[in-house]
Design goal:
Chain lengths: 414, 402
């Protein structure tokens, strides 16, 4: 009995030590840009859109698991491997693409943060730079484990969406059954929006981030099993949160036929139906989503930079030692803040460009994941199995199709 | 000096001009002397390995000797592409330093890996943007240099384990001592020598040149542009610079001296004027002087502030207003004094000195007799012209003997 207890204690401790990469990356996929997309989707289609949630969760779990497994086995990041196996030229192109697309996402997240601040009547010109500077200093000065705990705290704030959902008094039976039973007409507009939802969840930066972040955590192959469980769990938690977010919007805004295009509008529109408090909670969720998103996406670019060019880059290192790493992080946050604070700037153009490049870059990244995950010289006995390969290839096809359609949709205004 | 980025992808032809394939990789020995042993050529029907001895020439294309042979990989051979290029360089503690952006290969007297390029130019070379980047940067009035990491810094044994590891810790990356690098470089042709020196930072380059032997220095300064030569000479010790200048023809010397920096020119001109005699030839103006009334504390302070970069300093020469050498003291005596004691109170007024006409042998004898490491050189008015140090003197006498 005692030994059994010890065995379990041991397992639970390992499990707790492992928690982080999967959960944080997956939940960060619901960044401010994500929350806006989900709000818009649920406001337009109500419960009909829920049908994409389960397939999306599976895709997210599978792709993230492969990325993390490569990082654990090879002890190298995705960018490390691309540079070492494909040379300078391809590495530079990939870095350029990643930098561009991530910067666009950072801008969207900072803009989400700004919108959330405005919701609470806080002047963005004062508070936005203050928050960004605060976040930056915190990340620079703290060690990996403290930054990770901070991320987990931010993740906890997503709980506000669950409360908002309950306050909206939705029709739970319809909400849950919509996850499995498709209903309503499938229009091009519906396809386009589903794809936008998918595209904001499974991202290029997500693949790079989980990889570098797992490496920075120094997990070893004995952790593989726990890590896989954690990543699957992260994907489920994330999409459960998405579910509640959408429920809150579908039960109020969609039901009353109000048109919203982003999360801040949703937070306001929710109030008359679910109460002021629900609206505030929704806004708080957006605030923290923006904070988590802008830091994590900017960190991804910083990780990739130091991996591509071989400079030291780790959250555990001091500014002096990882100067280029932290500078890359800073540049993006500064650009993000400046662009978000510019009046009359069209975020629509940025979103369009970001979505397109993101869509274009994802299949390329999947190609690298496929190559690396099936290479015995890198993975030893931990190569992909057939199911994983099929799912990865399948996801690539779905996402290429999805992003192309998404792009066309945005161009022709479906 | 060859760069892998410029060689990779070159067409390989047989001696009769038929294209065999493209060069994709080199095999080399993971030793302290990393000889390049084989070329890997990708042909239309797979790849072949050809021993480097079968290579006739490298120009626009690589030409092989008639009836070249092919071979397999030996156990002790590594691949430039797999084991070196694009790999992460870590220091002895495992910290990430930078990546290998290009591999530098020395082609004479035999093919050997000279080191790796870790700079921006190494990346630009792969994109065929090296020249463009250089032009762009020179537009802003600066220049880019390759960051060259000599092979001596890398642990060859770790390479076969898939690690490019340095022998030092990152901050302490002293690179190779200039004296040692000079020894190593003396074996190269002047053309290759200039190429390697081009890769080094200016101060380091100057130090290395200072340590080359005289004939090498002469050849080198003859072959590089006067402006570059002046730049180097301005950075090295004035007495050494004069020695090097004296090995050149007068015409060449007159091309170079006007381009020296103001400071260096003054000192070098002065020493050149002295150089008509043996002692004058060895003279340097790198000495530290004080006035008789200056206090011990003031001298010590000035020494701390101004002489951090000076060559080893053994004496303080005391000079009065008429520039006459009136005394000398050594550092120990200076340290023993209270702060406010003026120099004239404790200096030794009977200075052992030599004249420009003194033969080096006599100067040597004086040094040994009085246990002095550097002698002041004075004129008939007892004005200090310069000093001659024991190391320069010994070196010159040694050279004379051989």
């Amino acid at each position: 009995m005692r030994t059994l207890f010890h065995q379990w204690k041991h397992r639970i401790l390992i499990a707790l030590a492992i928690v982080g990469p999967g959960l944080i990356t997956a939940v960060a996929d619901n960044d401010a840009a994500g929350v806006s997309t989900y709000s818009m989707a649920a406001a337009t289609f109500g419960y009909q859109i829920f049908i994409v949630l389960i397939p999306m969760t599976i895709l997210l779990a599978i792709t993230q698991e492969i990325g993390a497994r490569i990082a654990i086995v090879a002890e190298k990041g995705l960018a490390d491997l691309i540079r070492e196996r494909y040379g300078v030229r391809i590495a530079l192109v990939m870095y350029g693409l990643l930098f561009f697309v991530n910067l666009a996402v950072v801008i969207m997240d900072v803009a989400g943060l700004k919108a959330a601040l405005s919701l609470f009547g806080l002047n963005p010109t004062v508070f936005l730079p203050a928050i960004i500077v605060g976040l930056y200093l915190f990340v620079v000065l703290s060690s990996y484990s403290i930054v990770e705990r901070f991320f987990l705290v931010l993740v906890a704030f997503y709980g506000t969406y669950i409360i908002s959902a309950f306050m909206a008094k939705p029709d739970w039976a319809t909400a849950t059954s919509s996850l499995i039973i498709p209903h309503g007409q499938i229009t091009p507009r519906f396809l386009y929006v589903s794809i936008a939802v998918l595209g904001t969840t499974i991202t290029a930066w997500g693949q790079f981030f989980i990889n570098s972040y797992v490496k920075d955590k120094h997990l070893t192959t004995e952790h593989l099993k726990y890590n896989r469980a954690e990543i699957y769990l992260g994907a489920i938690v994330t999409d459960t949160l998405t579910f509640f977010m959408m429920v809150a919007v579908a039960a109020t805004i969609f039901a009353n036929k109000i048109i919203v295009t982003d999360a801040a509008q949703a937070a306001i529109a929710i109030r008359p139906f679910a109460g002021n408090f629900a609206g505030i909670l929704f806004g708080v969720g957006l605030l923290f989503a923006g904070m988590l998103g802008c830091v994590i996406v900017a960190l991804t670019t910083a990780y990739a930079f130091s991996e591509f060019f071989g400079y030291s880059g780790s959250l555990d290192e001091t500014f002096r030692k990882s100067k280029l790493f932290y500078t890359t992080l800073l540049i993006q946050l500064v650009i993000g803040t400046i662009v978000a604070l510019m009046p009359n700037v069209s975020l629509f153009a940025i979103t369009l460009a970001a979505n397109f490049v993101n869509g274009a870059i994802l299949p390329i990244i999947f190609y690298f994941l496929y190559e690396f995950a099936n290479n015995e010289a890198i993975m030893g006995t931990h190569t992909n199995n057939k199911v994983q390969n099929w799912l990865l290839a399948g996801s690539a096809v779905v996402i290429i199709f999805a992003s192309l359609l998404g792009l066309l949709g945005q161009i022709f205004g479906w | 000096m060859l760069y892998f980025a410029e060689l990779a992808g070159k067409y390989v032809t047989s001696s009769d001009g038929k294209i065999i394939g493209r060069l994709t990789d080199f095999a080399f020995l993971a030793t302290d002397q990393p000889l390049v042993t084989k070329l890997r050529i990708d042909t239309r029907v797979g790849h072949i390995l050809v021993p480097i001895s079968n290579m006739k020439s490298i120009n626009g294309t690589i030409t092989l000797t008639p009836g070249f042979e092919t071979s397999g990989v030996s156990d002790n051979e590594l691949s430039v592409k797999i084991h070196l290029l694009d790999q992460q360089i870590i220091d002895i503690k495992g910290n990430k330093v930078v990546r290998v952006n290009d591999v530098v290969i020395q082609d004479k007297p035999y093919f050997v890996i000279a080191g790796v390029d870790v700079g921006v130019l190494g990346i630009a070379r792969w994109l065929k943007l090296e020249q463009a980047l250089n032009r762009l940067v020179s537009g802003f009035g600066t220049s880019l240099r390759s960051d060259f990491l000599p092979w001596e810094n890398i642990q060859p044994l770790e390479l076969s384990r898939g690690k490019v590891q340095l022998k030092h810790e990152e901050g302490k990356l002293t690179k190779l001592a200039p004296e040692d690098l000079a020894d190593h470089l003396e074996r190269l042709s002047v053309k290759n020598l200039t190429k390697i020196l081009d890769l080094l930072p200016n101060e380091y380059e100057a130090e290395v040149i200072q340590n080359l032997n005289v004939s090498r220095q002469r050849e080198l300064l003859r072959s590089i542009l006067p402006k570059h030569a002046a730049g180097i000479l301005s950075l090295i010790d004035p007495d050494e610079a004069v020695d090097i200048l004296l090995t050149l023809s007068e015409r060449r010397r007159n091309l170079i001296t006007p381009l020296l920096t103001e400071d260096a020119k003054k000192q070098i001109d002065y020493l050149l004027n002295l150089s008509t005699t043996d002692i004058g030839n060895l003279a340097t103006t790198d000495y530290f002087s004080a006035e008789p009334e200056e206090t011990a504390m003031s001298v010590r302070r000035r020494m701390k502030r101004d002489t951090t970069l000076a060559t080893p300093l053994t004496y303080v020469f005391v000079i009065n207003k008429k520039k006459e050498l009136v005394g000398v003291c050594n550092l120990h005596e200076l340290l023993l004094q209270d702060a406010d004691v003026p120099m004239y109170k404790f200096m030794i007024p009977n200075v052992v000195a030599v004249y420009l006409t003194t033969p080096p042998e006599i100067a040597m004898k004086k040094m040994v007799k009085y246990k002095i490491y550097s002698l002041p050189i004075i004129n008939d008015k007892r004005q200090l012209l310069g000093i001659v140090t024991i190391d320069d003197l010994v070196e010159s006498m040694q050279e004379k003997r051989t």
